[in-house]
């Protein structure tokens, strides 16, 4: 098979690595790709939002399957463009990708179909949102309705903070049109867990659990980011939690989307909060998480292309997902200053070390070639991932491997997976 992957981050690198291990993969393209993805794929200079150009490329090069990694093109309708051209593509169409594209839609869906989630109200008028806050309990959570690079969620401890948050989202348009509508919801406490799943419109098969670390600094301090590191599996995701989620959340979501005339094919990412009242949905994503993919895919035994084709063809019920009986930890190496201001174009050294050690991976998130030299090209630069027999060993291995790599403004959190010690 000839495969085209759409995207340029660590998630797409993990997908490219996984596809490269498939017995079905003959040729891999990635648009636009990055310096790490270039090890497995021919990088193509077409942007992820250039749907017509991407579809034309897929046709001209007889691409058998296109895998869309990123949220923006999915929500924008790339799958509809490809399907209209008769091209096979993995990911939800525009009608289904609204599950991630609109938090107001997903909250209303959960309420309608009694899927456990936090109490909430939606607002498209700043004055009404501010009036509601006068009666609210704190802390409280504000969410931009649309896509905001994983950063459109504000946890507000006081009325003043919440008023400022409404102003920045709805009046100052900090995240552009994404904040035209906002969700105000109750603040939930508990452990966060991420569960990724494959879906074929009817059947859902969940992958192994993971946990992300969203805040920029140690101790979950600092600004929200796209994710500073992950571990898999989560020791807090017990058999009892899994049984509850299967009964009340996973299949219920797939059935709800089908009932709404929006059958979902692709990846549903369930962001869960394990509260005292039981698991509740924090958020849905319509694609692999980043950096969750970097710890989940290296542990998956299945041929990823077989699973994706089964999703497209409605035959996922014939697949049994299998994962290694081990653990993986990913520590993101970022540019100091992320997620605000940071320098780019800084040479990276030490990457060759990962070729010498089995069970260690370096997934590129923000890199490019400057001549023959690989340089930084983003806020999140690399996802250093390592396996181990258990979480503690995987964590020690991942942190040891972060020392193999150097670049001028390298920054990382030092407490990724610290929660493991409390399990």
Care to describe what's here?
- The chain has 423 residues and is of the alpha+beta class.
- The protein has four domains: 2-94, 3-Layer(aba) Sandwich (Rossmann fold); 119-186, ATP-grasp fold, A domain (Dna Ligase, domain 1), CATH 3.30.1490.20; 191-318, ATP-grasp fold, B domain (D-amino Acid Aminotransferase, Chain A, domain 1, 2-Layer Sandwich); 327-422, Glycinamide Ribonucleotide Synthetase, Chain A, domain 4 (Alpha-Beta Complex).
- The chain contains twelve helices and 22 strands.
- The chain has helices at residues 10-20, 51-60, 71-76, 78-84, 94-101, 103-112, 126-133, 159-171, 239-259, 293-296, 304-312, 391-402; strands at 2-7, 27-32, 42-43, 65-68, 89-90, 120-123, 140-144, 153-156, 182-186, 191-200, 204-212, 215-217, 221-224, 229-232, 265-275, 278-285, 327-335, 360-364, 367-370, 373-376, 380-388, 410-411.
- Strands 10, 11, 14, 15, 16, 17, 18, 21 and 22 form a nine-stranded antiparallel β-sheet that branches.
- Helix 7 packs antiparallel against helix 8 (159-171).
- The radius of gyration is 21 Å and the shape is globular.
- The termini are far apart.
- The model has no long low-confidence stretch (mean pLDDT 96).
- InterPro entries: ATP-grasp, ATP_grasp_subdomain_1, PreATP-grasp_dom_sf, PRibGlycinamid_synth_ATP-grasp, PRibGlycinamide_synth, PRibGlycinamide_synth_C-dom, PRibGlycinamide_synth_C_sf, PRibGlycinamide_synth_CS.
- This is Phosphoribosylamine--glycine ligase.
- Its cofactor is Mg(2+); Mn(2+).
- Pathway: Purine metabolism; IMP biosynthesis via de novo pathway; N(1)-(5-phospho-D-ribosyl)glycinamide from 5-phospho-alpha-D-ribose 1-diphosphate: step 2/2.
- One of its GO terms (molecular function) is phosphoribosylamine-glycine ligase activity.
């Amino acid at each position: 098979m000839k495969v085209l992957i759409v995207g340029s981050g660590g998630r797409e690198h993990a997908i490219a690595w996984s596809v490269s291990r498939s017995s079905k993969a003959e040729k891999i393209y990635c648009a636009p790709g990055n310096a790490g993805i270039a090890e497995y794929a021919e990088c193509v200079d077409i942007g992820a939002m250039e749907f017509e150009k991407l579809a034309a490329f897929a046709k001209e090069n007889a691409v058998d399957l296109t895998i869309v990694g990123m949220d923006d093109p999915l929500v924008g309708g790339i799958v509809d463009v490809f399907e209209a051209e008769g091209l096979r593509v993995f990911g939800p169409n525009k009608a289904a990708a609204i599950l991630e594209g609109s938090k107001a839609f997903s909250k209303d869906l959960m309420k309608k179909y009694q899927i456990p989630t936090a109490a909430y109200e939606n607002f498209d008028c700043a004055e009404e949102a501010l009036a509601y806050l006068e009666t609210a309990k704190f802390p409280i959570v504000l969410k931009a309705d649309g896509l905001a690079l994983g950063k459109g969620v504000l946890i507000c401890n006081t009325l003043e903070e919440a008023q400022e948050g409404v102003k920045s989202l709805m009046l100052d348009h900090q995240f552009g049109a994404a904040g035209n509508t906002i969700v105000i919801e109750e603040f939930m406490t508990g452990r966060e867990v991420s569960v990724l799943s494959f879906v074929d419109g009817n059947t859902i098969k969940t992958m192994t659990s993971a946990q992300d670390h969203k805040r920029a600094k140690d101790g979950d301090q600092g600004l929200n980011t796209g994710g500073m590191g992950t571990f898999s599996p989560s020791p807090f995701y017990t058999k009892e939690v899994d049984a509850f989620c299967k009964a009340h959340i996973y299949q219920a979501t797939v059935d709800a989307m089908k009932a709404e005339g929006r059958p979902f094919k692709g990846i549903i990412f369930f962001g869960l909060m394990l509260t005292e009242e039981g698991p509740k949905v924090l958020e849905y994503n319509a694609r692999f998480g980043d950096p969750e993919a970097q710890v989940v895919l290296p542990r998956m035994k299945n041929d990823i292309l077989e699973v994706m084709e089964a999703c497209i063809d409605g035959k996922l019920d014939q697949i049994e997902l299998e994962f290694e009986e081990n653990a993986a930890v990913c520590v993101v190496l970022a540019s100091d200053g992320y997620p605000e201001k940071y320098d780019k174009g800084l040479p990276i050294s030490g990457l060759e070390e990962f070729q010498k050690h089995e069970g260690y991976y370096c997934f590129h998130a923000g890199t490019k070639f400057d001549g023959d030299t690989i340089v930084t090209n983003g806020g999140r630069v690399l996802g250093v991932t390592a396996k181990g027999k258990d979480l503690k060993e995987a964590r020690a291995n991942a942190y040891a491997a972060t020392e193999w790599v150097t670049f001028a403004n390298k920054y990382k959190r030092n407490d990724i997976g610290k929660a493991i010690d409390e399990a």
